[in-house]
Design a protein that fits this description.
alpha/beta; Metallo-depent_PP-like; metal-binding; 16% strand
Length: 635
């Protein structure tokens, strides 16, 4: 017996997976999980035991205990999180240099459990979706099924069940992987509509589909990349890239030839974590449990690696998300077959070593420039810009007439296009005979997300519509898209705070525009008001409003009495302006200190001005000052 015990003592000791100083999460049989530091590692009878130390006490437990989970050291976590989130300060292109390291760091963080975190519990698919899920898996999804998905995504309901969304993504991947890398699309009997960057702005997709019509065999849609990342303001839906993808994939599965997606630089799984909570990864992780989010991120990553890179429309127009590859600039052997020959899965490269990497990188990252030739790009890194001579030469060699791309907000090349949804580049100086009807240049930038990232009155959105007679561009304002989005929701609670500002339903963007430009509106009204009685004929009032705020369709609002105080064909513009005011909402004194500080600064400014009563009132509020002046004149 003793000999046997000695033999066991001489057996190789169990290898301990922990080191002194490492951090672990320890969940005792009774009590909550605790974050501990390994203080000692001992071996007894071939068994490894570790000593744990935390603020709550100390323990000695076997290394194989089920209550132990290894975690990253705090300094390692800090390094990883800086790698994932701190890259935003760098240029977008530079971030690609770190994509492989970023991916490893992301995977490490995803595999790390937080102390006391709740274990993910798979959520069952609700009964109304069970039939749809069976249709997807069986390959029998109908147009009505797709419409039910879009309706659910656009009316403000909770995110789709993970099982359903996974089924959509995986079925969509199997469809797009058989499409050519270079799509060749012809205009159907109806129209072909091209959308630029949407970046999670669901409101714009809802508005366009409600205005133009839903995808069908006679109405084909092409999304030119950058559905992922960023998002809109909370009132206008916030981050809704998942809902856009679900709607697009639903129609794609039901009718594959009615909708297409080309790849943008944001359709890149290594790029999503860079934006933290505002990125596509952040959106998924905010809406689903940890295990569900992991599955969805992997599925969407695989889907994006299968997407086509470009399209040719009607054998006239080349559609790319970014721009022309640098290897095409001075290469007489260039051909569209360069794109067709690319193999899947297709990853966006970190560098441009080689012709194939240049094709992929520049097709998703390049931008136009005014100067001829190739030049550096403000995005930094490996990104390039291409000039009008490159565009003209490439289009001529391919027998095409227009380059349509997206990738950036309009207005970088010309002040004329600031705030617009499109921008023309590379005017045709030699009057190319093949210039497409309706084109005003050889290169067109298209951006569909209006009021980008929630910036009110920021920019309009646009889409390009091809039909039998050529093409035309249609723009829309952010408030129009918001109106369509809010209308699509089955139940939208009314905000009481907005009820203090106006009567009846009115788009928030219109209210904010009137408040912000109130004094300019007043100046226009008073200049047109000869008798100074605060009244203007409806046509004059409408003309004044249009000069100050041309983006608002006043002709559609004049019949709304809650907006326009109209009586006997005249508008009381003073009543119209005083209706919209900025006020503090009472939230248990939340703004009291700020209110007092602002009043103190205002009072100090009045004393420093040392003006008369009339002058003081004019300084404080031109509307109130004009009211006193008008009454004094009447007396």
């Amino acid at each position: 017996m003793v000999a046997n015990k000695r033999l066991r003592l001489q057996e190789p000791a169990e290898e301990c997976p922990y080191e002194v100083g490492s951090r672990v999460v320890f969940t005792p049989p009774r009590g909550p999980a605790r974050l501990c530091t390994v203080s000692s590692v001992t071996s007894d009878l071939g068994r490894c035991h570790i000593g744990l130390q935390s603020e709550e006490g100390s323990w000695c437990v076997p290394s194989c205990s089920s209550g132990l989970k290894k975690v990253l050291l705090p300094q390692d976590k800090a390094v990883l999180r800086r790698l994932l989130q701190g890259l935003e300060a760098k240029s977008e292109s530079d971030a690609l240099r770190f994509s492989s390291k970023q991916r490893k760091a992301f995977e490490a963080l995803r595999g790390t459990e937080r102390p006391g975190s709740k274990q993910a519990v798979p959520r069952p698919v609700p009964t109304p979706w069970s039939t749809l899920l069976s249709h997807i898996t069986a390959g029998t999804m109908t147009w009505e099924d797709a419409h039910s998905v879009f309706q659910s995504c656009s009316n403000g309901e909770n995110p789709l069940p993970c099982s359903l969304l996974l089924a959509l993504v995986r079925a969509g991947k199997e469809l797009v992987r058989w499409e050519p890398m270079l799509l060749r699309l012809s205009v159907p009997a109806g129209r072909l509509v091209i959308l630029g960057d949407t970046h999670g702005h669901l409101k714009d997709v809802v508005h366009i589909w409600k205005t133009e019509g839903l995808p069908s065999k006679d109405l084909v849609y092409l999304f030119n990349g950058d559905i992922c990342d960023r998002g809109d303001s909370e009132r206008r839906g916030g981050q809704r890239a998942l809902q856009i993808w679900a709607s697009v994939l639903a129609y794609k599965i039901a009718a594959p030839e009615c909708i297409y997606v080309t790849r943008g630089n944001h359709e890149d799984r290594d790029y999503w974590p860079q934006y933290g909570a505002t990125g596509f990864s952040g959106e998924i992780e905010a809406k689903y449990d940890r295990s569900e989010a992991d599955d969805l991120l992997d599925a969407f990553g695989e889907l994006c690696d299968q997407l086509p890179l470009a399209a040719v429309v009607q054998e006239q127009c080349l559609v790319l998300h970014g721009g022309l590859p640098r290897c095409w600039a001075d290469d007489p052997s260039r051909s569209l077959q360069d794109l067709e020959a690319l193999e899947r899965p297709l990853c966006i490269p970190e560098n441009v070593d080689g012709r194939q990497k240049q094709l992929i990188y520049d097709a998703t990252w390049a931008d136009p420039q005014k100067e001829n030739g190739l030049g550096p790009n403000d995005r930094g890194g490996e990104a390039i810009s291409f000039g009008p001579d490159v565009t003209c030469s490439v289009l001529k060699s391919f027998g095409l007439q227009l380059l349509l791309r997206s990738h950036e907000l309009p207005g970088r090349g010309s002040e004329e296009f600031k705030g617009r949804g499109f921008e023309w580049w590379h005017a045709c100086e030699d009057e190319m005979e093949v210039l497409l009807k309706g084109a005003k240049g050889l290169c067109l930038s298209l951006f569909t997300a209006s009021d980008y990232c929630g910036c009110l009155e920021g920019n309009s959105g646009a889409r390009v519509i091809f039909d039998g007679d050529g093409f035309h561009i249609v723009e829309h304002q952010g408030w129009e898209a918001e109106h369509a989005f809010l209308q699509s929701q089955t139940e939208k609670p009314f905000d009481p705070a907005e009820g203090m500002l106006f009567e009846g339903p009115l788009e928030r963007s219109v209210i904010e525009a009137v408040v912000e430009r109130k004094h300019e509106l007043l100046a226009e009204f008073m200049a047109s008001d000869a008798p100074k009685d605060w009244l203007l004929p409806l046509e004059s009032w409408q003309a004044c409003c249009h000069r100050v705020l041309p983006q608002i369709p006043w002709q559609d609002l004049v019949n709304n009495k809650s907006i326009v105080p109209l009586r006997s064909g005249q508008v009381n513009y003073m009543l119209f302006l005083t209706r919209y005011q900025v006020r503090f909402s009472h939230k248990q004194g939340l703004h009291a200190s700020f209110h007092r500080r602002m009043a103190s600064q205002l009072f100090a400014g009045v004393l420093e001005a040392d003006a008369t009563l009339r002058g003081t009132l004019e300084l404080l509020d031109p509307i109130l000052g004009s009211e006193i002046r008008t009454r004094a004149d009447k007396k």
